Amino acid sequence: MSYQQLEAHQRQIDRLQHLFAICGWDQATMMPEGGSQARAEAMAELEVLLHAKKTAPEVGDWIAAAEGESLSAAQQANLNEIRRHWQDARLLPADLVEALSLAGSRCEHAWRRQRQENDWAGFAPNLGEVVRLSRDVARLRAEALEMRPYDAMLALYEPGMSVVKLDQVFGDLANWLPGLITEVSERQRGEAVLTPVGPFPTEQQKALGLEVMSLIGFDFNHGRLDVSSHPFCGGVPTDVRMTTRYNEEEFVSSLMGIIHETGHARYEQGLPREWLGQPAGEARSMAIHESQSLFCEMQLGHHPAFLSLIAPRIRAHFGEQPALSAANLARLYNRVEPGLIRVDADEVTYPAHVILRYELERDLIEGRIEVADIPELWDAKMQQWLGLRTAGNYRDGCMQDIHWTDGSFGYFPSYTLGAMTAAQLRFALERDLGEMGSVIEAGRLPALFAWLSAKIWQHASLLPTDELLTQATGETLSPRWLRRHLEQRYVGK
Amino acid sequence: MSYQQLEAHQRQIDRLQHLFAICGWDQATMMPEGGSQARAEAMAELEVLLHAKKTAPEVGDWIAAAEGESLSAAQQANLNEIRRHWQDARLLPADLVEALSLAGSRCEHAWRRQRQENDWAGFAPNLGEVVRLSRDVARLRAEALEMRPYDAMLALYEPGMSVVKLDQVFGDLANWLPGLITEVSERQRGEAVLTPVGPFPTEQQKALGLEVMSLIGFDFNHGRLDVSSHPFCGGVPTDVRMTTRYNEEEFVSSLMGIIHETGHARYEQGLPREWLGQPAGEARSMAIHESQSLFCEMQLGHHPAFLSLIAPRIRAHFGEQPALSAANLARLYNRVEPGLIRVDADEVTYPAHVILRYELERDLIEGRIEVADIPELWDAKMQQWLGLRTAGNYRDGCMQDIHWTDGSFGYFPSYTLGAMTAAQLRFALERDLGEMGSVIEAGRLPALFAWLSAKIWQHASLLPTDELLTQATGETLSPRWLRRHLEQRYVGK
Ligand SMILES: [Zn+2]
Ligand SMILES: [Zn+2]
């Protein structure tokens, strides 16, 4: 059967991608500086080889033949995903794939130092090369998929998403979010929040992080925690490689970063074992992935009941101080304050950072702006959304993120789509299990994760995003649940 | 030009082998248990792919065409190495490779428990299967290469080595080594050696190890040190991954293990950059590799002047105690004592262990003895060489090593060839730079390594072993330098 040949072929691809994932993790966590050139070449070589495998002529024949075969619903879903990946792969010529991989590695590698040195002049030409190649990608994809260029990039991360839909949901946010930010800022103005006093030794932070990972169910037999300058969750489902970074002057952001990445990790570890190695067994999309990490971080991690649960563990590692009371931690973690750095942003101002990047990358990919225009536009949009200036401060402005360095244009919207999804999931979960606070207080975290497993993880890519969300929550994506969540938590509506 | 096509093809192979090396390192140092199944499958997939690439039909055509092209001497050397690797890869049918791989895994896996349980009866049939398949390998290689079977196995590790040469050099050792062992044992009988008293915390051992690695020139921009249960030196030349293991009850063996692996690492790091990725740019052979690690360990690391140099550092980490004086460390590290276990042997008795295994595996591969004969022969040879009985003690006798379990017949001689080469290099180096002790005392370690680089590292596989050694030392391999070294160090001749 052709379908069986496709499955065998996908297993081969998956095995080679396994090696790519582990070497990518190593590159970010373990590799010494001097190894970067050879590593970039080795990974580009495998990427070319994978590309050749994915686009082998017989794959199209197998797909065509499999369409006439008698398949189960799950096999049919797998065939759909195989077809989608195959189309994605064959749209691009091998030399473009290789050029983008090399330019991306070079740009990202140099960015690590350039960011520290606020070196926009050094960074801009590297980014320019990545943008130039990414526009080629977008154009080729757009022509073949009959979409506008940015939609064709979105489809890499969010199949079914589009500028039209994004403008709807982000437009909805634009109507109420600025007012909410102002309202919350005013409410919190008089609030006394104590800043925990360090130092917080790395070893203690790591031990605390590992404890909290255990508490929320990370499986250490199938993964580990390491350090990288930009935290991520990589590896493979049976060996998930999570990273964080430590700052001995404060533990707050590293701890919540660990909780966030653990959300990603549990999704990966929770994918259905019987479908591992097949496209239908992969995480559904970046927004769904982010919904799992943001569920862990925002819906669970920032919940006062959860902070009450972990406050004693925090004090056990860092000693008693008033700033480490559960009440103060809740104030600290739910403090809303416009800031320059996306990854440090609270959940109320976070969408502003994403919409800013979305608007820039959409126009960058579609040729309406150039790399040289970014700093000025960044500054203008930061002023407009959050009232902050970034002129001359590239490090905390347009050079703060890693995403554009390797050409991941179309990715940023996933963060806010994920936040919306997480909020929508939370209200659906509460209908089934009761209010989050009481679930946490009753020690029912396993029930909470079992719900996520049943509603999201176990379905992997066996359903399209809209269907996945509908079976989990009763409706497709709606921004009103994020609004309800934020208003409930921050202005007590 | 066909030669250029071969170079491009080799670069591809090298890049994929890079990923294999890093994932292999990860498997031994980082991977959680639950990731092992998927990793094994992923690495096997790449191995199959590499084999297909190495034996692709066009390679033979390119080689034939390149032989008629005008090449530099270095290109010619590279072509010779390419041809050798290509022949090695295509000589064996895939089903024999797979059968041996399976039998080897089975034998090795069962051996781990059988060794503990001294279970020769359980082990012998598994080893018998590995021997049977290895004889097939040896026969096929022998027919194609027109060599005797054991020479065809040696060629996998030591191109140019043969039973005739081994019988010469090992025969020479047999004339003087047993007498020397007796003489040294008698001399050391009354010597008081203090055992350092622990515990020796892992963190301190690691810090000391890193310091000593720096002292002997390990380039941390192109490598790192980690922990694995079986120490090794892996990775790639621009990113060498060294491992060790720590035992908090004693630091002596871990420290010297680090020095040994640093010798391997410096060779890899010192290979000529312009030939990286090509067969001519690889380390020459297993014996030459071992000569570099043994030079570091035995010629340098066990030298009283070197131990004087590092003794203050050792005491800085572990505190003052009489056992950590330079003089006692020299007695400790240069203690000669016949023992059952090869990996714990001192440099005087070590060759006895190797010659014993060489004689057995040579006769085993060439069908003059059978697996059932091993224990009795082992016992007889251990009595003859070291005066020790192993009858009934399989665990510390013929079941102590891992090498035969996966069919690595032909590898053992490299250890003692490496020790001889290291001694020969030392006396050549002393003719150029002066006596080792004064080189060390004058702080001229950089000059010492520059000499090794000029004589060995920079030549990679650009010369055959005999030529390499001749240009470095003025002659081909001779056991008299090892004799001189051992007599000088141990009986003061
Ligand atoms: Zn995330
Ligand atoms: Zn070695």
Spell out the key features of this protein.
20 helices, Metal-dependent carboxypeptidase (chains A, B), mainly alpha, zinc (chains A, B), homodimer, 3% strand, metal-binding (chains A, B), 3-stranded mixed beta sheet, 493 residues, binds zinc ion
Q: Hetero groups bound?
A: zinc ion
Number of strands of chain A: 3
Quick one: which chains have the greatest interface? A-B, 36 and 36 residues
Order of helices and strands of chain A: HHHHHHHHHEEEHHHHHHHHHHH
For the biggest sheet of chain A, the summary is: 3 strands, mixed
Summed over residues and divided by their number, the pLDDT of chain A gives a mean of 96
Please bin the fraction of helical residues of chain A. Answer: 55-70%
Class by SSE composition of chain A = mainly alpha
Q: List segments of chain A where confidence is low: pLDDT < 50 over at least 5 consecutive residues.
A: none
Individual helix count of chain A: 20
Give the overall shape of chain A. globular
Helix-strand layout with pairing:
The structure is a homodimer of 493-residue chains.
Chain A lengths: L1 H28 L6 H19 L2 H10 L6 H18 L3 H23 L3 H26 L3 H9 L5 H27 L12 H14 L7 E5 L5 E4 L2 E6 L7 H18 L16 H16 L2 H15 L7 H8 L16 H16 L8 H13 L26 H21 L2 H6 L3 H11 L9 H9 L6 H12 L2
